[in-house]
Amino acid sequence: MTKCIFQCIYRNLNHNQLSGDITDIFSNLPSLTTVDLSSNSLTGNLPQSFSSLPSLKTLYLQNNQLTGSINVLANLPLDDLNVANNRFTGWIPDELKKINSLQTDGNSWSTSPAQHHHHHHLHLHILAAAVGKAQASIPMEVTTQVPVEALA
Q1: CA distance 152 to 128
Q2: Is-above-0.90 flag for pTM?
Q3: CA Rg, the chain, in Å?
Q4: Any alpha helices (H) in the chain, and if so which ranges?
Q5: Are 41 and 64 in contact (CB under 8 A)?
Q6: How far is the C-alpha of 152 from the C-alpha of 127, rounded, in Å?
Q7: For residue range 93-147, what is the model confidence (pLDDT) as tens digits?
Q8: Residue ranges of the alpha helices (H) in 22-137?
C-alpha cells in the first residue's frame, strides 16, 4: 500500500488478489474517506484501527473471507457499507443499521436476540413494589433463556 499519511482520502484495492489478514495500518489516516478492499481473499478479523478513521464515509469489504464481528465499525460516520459475502458472525450493531446504503447478505449473522453476558450468567431481578399496584409481565422467551430471581 502506498504511504499517504494525512493527505490520503481514497484507497481502491479491489480485485488485487490480496490475501491474509488486514493489518492495523489505518490509525494515522484521519482524512481517509473511502476504502475499497472488495473482491480479494482477505481473512481474519477487522483491525481495531478501523475505529480511528473519523472521516470514513464509504467502506467496501464484500466478497472476501473476513470473520468475527463488525463492531469496530459501529461509531464510524459511514454512509455506504458493504460487508456482503464474508464470514462475519454476531449481530449487526444498531448504529450500522441506520446507514442508508448497507449490504450485509452472505454472512453468518446471529438471528437470536442479542444477549449481554456478564460472567456468563445473566440474572433478571424483579422488584416487587411495596407500595402501589405496579404490574409487569415478562415475555415467555425471556423466562426460558435466563434465570429469574424474584426479590420481594
Answers
A1: 5
A2: no
A3: 21
A4: 94-97, 140-145
A5: yes
A6: 6
A7: 999 999 999 999 999 999 766 554 433 333 333 333 333 444 444 444 444 444 4
A8: 94-97
Q: Compute the distance between CA of residue 12 and CA of residue 8 in angstroms, rounded to an integer.
A: 11
What is the dihedral angle through the alpha carbons of 35, 10, 6, 94, rounded to the nearest 10 degrees? Answer: -40
Chain-centroid distance, C-alpha 2? 27
Residue 96 makes CB contacts below 8 A (sequence gap 6+) with 70, 73, 74, 78, 81, 102
CA atoms within 13 A on the CB side of 75: 7
Cell of 63: 466478497
Q: What structural domains does the chain harbor?
A: 10-109 (3.80.10.10)
Read off the pLDDT of residues 80-89 as tens digits, 9 standing for 90 and up.
999 999 999 9
Strand extents, DSSP E, the chain: 10-12, 19-21, 34-36, 41-44, 58-60, 65-68, 80-82, 87-90, 101-103, 108-109, 124-127, 148-151
Residue linked to cell 482520502: 9
**How do 101-103 and 148-151 pair as beta strands?**
unpaired
Amino acid identity, position 53: L
